[in-house]
Amino acid sequence: MLTLLGVAVVVVGFAARLNPLAVVVVAALVTGLCAGLPPLTVIAALGKAFNTNRLVTVALLVLPLIGVIERAGIQERARTVIARFKGLSPGPLLIGYLVFRQITAAIGLLSIGGHAQTVRPLIAPMAEAAAENRGPLPQETAYRIRAMASATENVGVFFGEDIFVAIGSILLMVGFLASSGLHLDPLQLSAWAIPTAICAFVIHGARLVLFDLKLRRLARETAE
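Request: output the structure for the sequence above.
Response:
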């Protein structure tokens, strides 16, 4: 039972908002030591796991590129493009992005979008510019638009990725069910994810419509 202390370390560390990487490493060391493993063996296991999954860190190479693009003015350019469409509002724009993310996630293109590489430099500024077409935008409203843009990314990916048969969550469920004696084809689970994705689109799409109506009402009140 002492090996479960590693779980307690993770819970306490995350609750205290400590560095996630440091918390995970300390939890692994605690678990290994409680299991009777030498410290060098635990460290070697961590190194082997990192080396095996090193391709996960390839995404970090994109961050400097995003920083350079933002410094070059991609947000301002996105605002300028959207400002030309006077009749466009944040609701339809974000609904279109929701459709795009669900479709791309359903065919396995998860990395084509994301908070860092798409929402922050493009989608959020475009949604803000669409709202500014009706008048000045208060800072609080701008934050709400950014939050809704991030939520659209989350909903689109979360409920779209399970349609893709080779996604990790589908393979995990197939493996777990197989270990319990229930043998299912990944395509069967993916097919049942389609109604969930449709419901998610309808619900979040309705939220975006209501949010857009609220922005319109605030713009009229501000103009008056």
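Residues 186-223 form the longest helix (38 residues).
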